[in-house]
Amino acid sequence: MKATTTQSPADAERRLKSFIAKFEPRHQSLIRAVRKALRKRFPTAYELVYDNYNFFVIGYGSTERPSDAIVSMVAGANGVGLCFIHGASLPDPHKLLLGSGNQTRFIRLESVEVLGRAEVKALIAAAIARAKTPLPSRGRGRLIIRAVSAKQRPRRRPTK
To answer: Is 143 helix (H, G, I), strand (E, B) or coil?
Structure first.
């Protein structure tokens, strides 16, 4: 199901809250903390939300187009990560970026404090500098629920 951008901010926040509620409590807390930190770092960015089959994703970009996303927070049953959409081309002297695809790389976020590390801040700054479309210089980005999959992998690990 694809959502339109005409949804009210309150409706979008309510839906977002319901997506996060599917996760284990510790992942819920981490998702909320990472979102808050990324919102602070990208105050003018659009937040594009996808509750897909494999992952829950909040992308941060300069427009409503997914191709303009700079980074995304990605969450699944195994944890939370920060995905660099064009990470394969970023300088990574500390070898933090994981993945082997042609375009995307990611780092695992055990805690929100990882975002405050100098080497992670440098990766984010490099991603912003290389963005095709610059972030707006003022204003506040909107939260947009882009897509929700009817069928999804579990958001919590199975209990033994």
So the answer is: strand
- Are the CB atoms for 32 and 111 separated by under 8 Å? no
DSSP of 40-108? HH-TTSEEEEEE-SS-EEEEEESSSSGGGEEEEEEEETTEEEEEETTGGGS--TT---B--SSS-EEEE
pLDDT, tens only, 13-64: 999 999 999 999 999 999 999 999 999 999 999 999 999 878 899 999 999 9
pLDDT of residue 9: 85
For residue 14, the number of C-alpha atoms closer than 13 Å in the C-beta half-sphere is 5
The residue to which tokens 């991603």 are assigned: 127
pTM of the model: 0.88
CA distances from 159 to 24, 92, 152, 154 (A): 11, 37, 18, 12
pLDDT at site 54: 85
